[in-house]
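User: If only I could read backbone structure tokens as easily as an amino acid sequence. Those tokens are not coordinates but codes from a learned vocabulary of shapes. Could you go through the record with me and say what the backbone is doing? Here is the record:
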Amino acid sequence: MRDAATHKTLAFLKMHGLGNDFVIIDSRGGAAVTTPALARALGDRHRGVGFDQLAEIRDGEPDGITLDFWNADGSRAGACGNATRCVAQLVMGDEGDQLSIRTARGALEARREDGTLWINMGHPQLAWDEIPLARDVDPLHMPLDGDPVGVGMGNPHCVFFVPDAGQTDPAGRGPAVETDPLFPEKTNVEFAEVRARDEIRMRVWERGTGITLACGSGACATLVAAHRRGLTDRRVRMELDGGWLDLDWREDGVWMAGPTALVFRAELDADFLGAL
């Protein structure tokens, strides 16, 4: 991948998982190029490309890669499950069986099982100071209206259980919860309707981005919250605004599977890069 400061253009890809859309920059073989300014410019859906998150691929261990994640406001994200699935599909293609992915969350594993690509998003963070919360409260019953559950999946999540997820207003409730003092790093906010022991409907407000059609780490956090409350089994199907994910909380972490799509490949113009 070429350095935006010294070359005329910068190649990128657009992908999505359930409508959760990503700009992906492949910097393997070179230096990382993403800056807060570049992430903000690319994230602008009117003057840039638009994305829910940006993922930059860097060199990793042998037979592996490293992934960095950015939000549309130029802030860093510690984890992004759907982007991880997209990149794993991009790198592995239809033939690869396994891939190691290094993120700020730690080492994640992508593995193909019976033709389906699964991503292990790791063990959930359940202690108040790991999520993190600002003070020692019970993450299973946090002191906010609606009795939400706190879960860390490499980034913080606040999960509300509601009678009808379709009737929730993430844009109305999400921003205030995202920035509540209880969350020193802000938080993602999920609104989940448990339909059965093996089925959940969820909508999400993502910190630094807003409403998205899906959130992989949020789906994982919602499963963990639901099972810990005794509402579901450890394996569920989850319907998000953009489609369905399969989730399985196993002994070695929370695994996730679902569709991905490559939309297009393109290059950023020199004038666009020069204006940053």
Notes: The longest strand covers residues 188-196. The chain has two domains: 10-121+260-274, 139-251. The chain is about 15% helix and 40% strand.
